[in-house]
Design a protein that fits this description.
about 290 residues; mainly alpha; single chain; 7 helices
Length: about 290
């Protein structure tokens, strides 16, 4: 675009109008040489003084901005032309994943390919991404619910563990003098079981959080993808969709089935001191009798 379309070194005159510094200076010189009387604004004919010309920095900045926009538009228009046929790139080849013009579409290279208008391709692939986003959002919600249930179960298990621990400690206080050697191994085993339960619970929650984080990042990436310009959006679109499809093939987070068995063992341990206490109580009563 020619520079004649833009202001050059714009200045503002007394009446408030702006003009190129060179243009208005030349105008004033010609006016004075022609002896036309008091100097007037070339636009509104108000009286002006050459000594009062003021640089219009705001206008100069705006002109520069408009120039840059013009250059950017020219660049985009050139980039949007087919290098071979110099025609507008208006179609999209799904097999090759590239923009083509109407002449390319007629060539043998794309004869057997699926070619659609760029607008239609964008709508199609955005539709597919929306489906994936919906599915992944649902899966994320399901995982969050599983995580909450897992945390509730973990709390319940730990409370049960604490209840059994207190019961064991209470009963062993009665037998402490007699069962000192037997109490410590049982308590140690109980503590070990509790650590194992907490460890397994933490591992399960960590796996769920990792899966949720993975889905969150992919969802964010897809949303950002949808906001991209057409020229960027369709680049590597197949790779993006393939990663979306792989989500359902990711191995599910398995919740350990061993926790109930651990708790069952834990309850068994709680019975041991009670049975021993009954046994010793019965023996003592027998000896007294």
């Amino acid at each position: 675009m020619s520079n004649l379309f833009y202001f050059s070194d714009p200045v503002t005159v007394d009446c408030g109008h702006s003009s190129c510094k060179t243009c208005v200076t030349t105008y004033c010189d010609n006016w004075e040489e022609g002896n036309h009387g008091p100097l007037c604004c070339p636009i509104c004919r108000e009286k002006i003084e050459k000594v009062n010309f003021r640089p219009n920095w705001d206008l100069a900045s705006l002109v520069e901005h408009v120039k840059q926009l013009g250059l950017k538009q020219e660049k985009e228009e050139k980039e949007n032309l087919c290098e071979r046929y110099k025609e507008k790139l208006s179609q999209f080849c799904e097999e090759d994943g590239e923009f083509i013009c109407v002449e390319c579409d007629k060539s043998p290279v794309h004869k057997t390919h699926t070619v659609v208008l760029i607008k239609e391709a964008v709508q199609k692939y955005k539709g597919q991404i929306c489906v994936h986003l919906n599915n992944m959002s649902k899966k994320k919600e399901e995982l969050l619910e599983i995580k909450l249930n897992e945390e509730r179960q973990s709390q319940k298990h730990q409370e049960e563990t604490e209840t059994v621990r207190k019961k064991i400690m209470s009963e062993f206080e009665e037998l402490e003098k007699i069962l000192q050697e037997q109490r410590q191994p049982l308590v140690a085993q109980l503590e070990e079981l509790n650590k194992d339960i907490v460890k397994r619970e933490n591992e399960n929650v960590t796996k769920l959080l990792e899966e949720i984080s993975f889905l969150s990042n992919l969802i964010k990436e897809l949303k950002e993808k949808c906001r991209q310009p057409v020229s960027e959006f369709l680049q590597d679109i197949r790779s993006t969709l393939n990663r979306c499809k792989q989500v359902k093939d990711r191995p599910p987070v398995e919740i350990s089935p061993e926790l109930e068995e651990k708790l069952s063992t834990l309850h068994q341990l709680g019975i041991v001191p009670e049975e021993i206490l009954k046994k010793f109580t019965g023996t003592e009563k027998g000896s007294k009798g």
